[in-house]
Amino acid sequence: MTKPRIIVGISGASGAVYGVECLRALKAAGVETHLVISKTAGITIAHETDLSVADVQKLADVNHSHMDLSASIASGSFKTAGMIVAPCSMRSLAEIAHGASTNLLTRAADVILKERRKLVLLVRETPLNNAHLKNMLAVSEMGGIIAPPVPAFYSKPKTLDEMVRHTVGRTLDIFDFPHDLVARWEGVPAK
Asked: What is the longest distance spanned by two Cα atoms in the chain?
């Protein structure tokens, strides 16, 4: 059986750790990853983590320059299970919503939508204005999945890492990739 393949995009929004944890979890699940990091994501990675862009790139099977619009992932003939953008900035969201691909991250997302594959956007912004909401609706109407990284408290997380892993696990659930990142809800015990 062929190894599943997915594209991971990391945009410049706050929350670079979501992309990093996605890469780690996908590797553990045996999924081939194709990574594209936007220009501003490099700044965010350096500011929010102890990792360099090169460290993050080592977590992926294949790396693509954000400006290489001739990369394999820019074509629908390159088969993947889909794409995760973690985190997804409002600028990337807007480009995806309107088909305005100025870089490889948004071009790859556009391809995923046109090929009717799964596109999951971990959108990061608060509060949201009408443009943000309309862009999320537009992507959702095209078949994309808007999955803001909202923590679940029923598992009583004790650390930020636990909350991040929960969000990443729920993201991998969308693709049916195996993991042990989520404390599953079992209901409230009867008294």
From this structure: 61
Asked if 17 and 46 count as a contact pair (C-beta separation under 8 A), the reply is: no
Percent of the chain clearing pLDDT 70 (strictly above): 99
Q: Count of CB atoms within 10 A of residue 127's CB?
A: 5
Instruction: Kindly list the distances between the CA atom of residue 65 and the CA atoms of 11, 32, 55, 131, 163, in Å, as whole numbers in the listed order.
Output: 13, 17, 15, 28, 30
pLDDT digits (tens, 9 = 90+) for 31-76: 999 999 999 999 999 999 999 999 999 999 999 999 999 999 999 9
5-99+112-174: CATH topology: Rossmann fold (3.40.50)
136-165 b/e (C-beta count within 10 Å ≥ 16 → b): bebbeebebebbbbeebeeeebeeeeebbb
- 163: which 2 tokens? 């909350």
C-beta of residue 145 within 8 angstroms of C-beta of residue 170: no
Contact by Cβ (8 Å): 152, 181: no
Pairing of strands 32-37, 62-64: parallel
The pair phi, psi for residue 82, each rounded to 5°, is 145, -155
pTM, whole model, 2 decimals? 0.95
Q: At what angle do helices 130-141 and 90-98 cross, to 10 degrees?
A: 50
